[in-house]
Amino acid sequence: MTTRLERQRFQSWREPDEIPYYRDIEFIKCQMYDCAFGWKHTPDYSRRATAEGISIINCDMRNATIGPALFRNIVVENLKSDSMILFSPVYEHVTLRGRFGRWMIHGAVQPGPPYWMPPAYWESCLRFYKNVDWALDISQAEFADFSFRTGGVPTHLVKRDPETQVVVRREQVIEGRWRRLGLAGYTEVGLKLLLEDQATETVLVVPKRMKDAKRLVEDLRTLQAAGIAQPD
Fold first, then answer.
1. Distances (CA, A) of 108 to 18, 55, 80
2. CA-based diameter of the chain, in Å?
3. d(Cα 210, Cα 31) in Å, to the nearest integer?
């Protein structure tokens, strides 16, 4: 049975001491301020704080800290927020749709630089994603800003809008031809971050709520025509 929580306020909520597991909860028009989730796990990350079967609809979330949790069968729709950084959760069937603020999906366990990514964490992620058919669906999401950092999610497991969200691989970027294409500054920053993060690939996302979104979409077509972004 699903628990429905509507128009409730959660202030400074923290996880219990044990590794938590929450499932089958709907949050509707709730306020979540200064809350944290996802920081409890075993040393080898084989067990993580887990949220499964959760819906977060038309909520307001501020000053959230999200750690290396496991998110499965999650829907988030129209989330008001300040800057959201998700530090290294793993995802299975997580859908973001509607309007969002500034989001960053990170592959690092803790902020940096230098970013902390212990071998046990990466090994646990590889094991997890071997059994996942798709991880994250951002095809219907409209962001004010968005970036993937340090290989946060395998790109082949991301459901994308091919018009505004394209895959770019390191080997096409490192040669530097993109620097001569007259790209917008936002697009160039995304490519530079791919190189700085030592990631092998990323998804370049046009934030549909950004004023220059049309120009950024043109940049994606330019990158694809130059063979720098992957065709769809």
1. 23, 25, 24
2. 57
3. 25
Task: State the DSSP H helix or E strand holding residue 124, giving kind and residue range, or none if neither.
Answer: helix 119-129
Residues 6+ apart with CB under 8 A from 227: 172
Which tokens sit at 1? 């049975």
What would the pLDDT profile of 110-169 be if each residue is shown by its tens digit? 666 556 677 888 899 999 999 999 999 999 999 999 999 888 899 999 999 999 999 999
208 near 160, Cβ under 8 Å?
A: no
Q: How much of the chain exceeds pLDDT 70, in percent?
A: 97
Distance CA 99, CA 77 (A): 7
Which pair of structure tokens corresponds to residue 26? 């709907």
What are the structural domain ranges in the chain? Answer: 3-159, 168-225
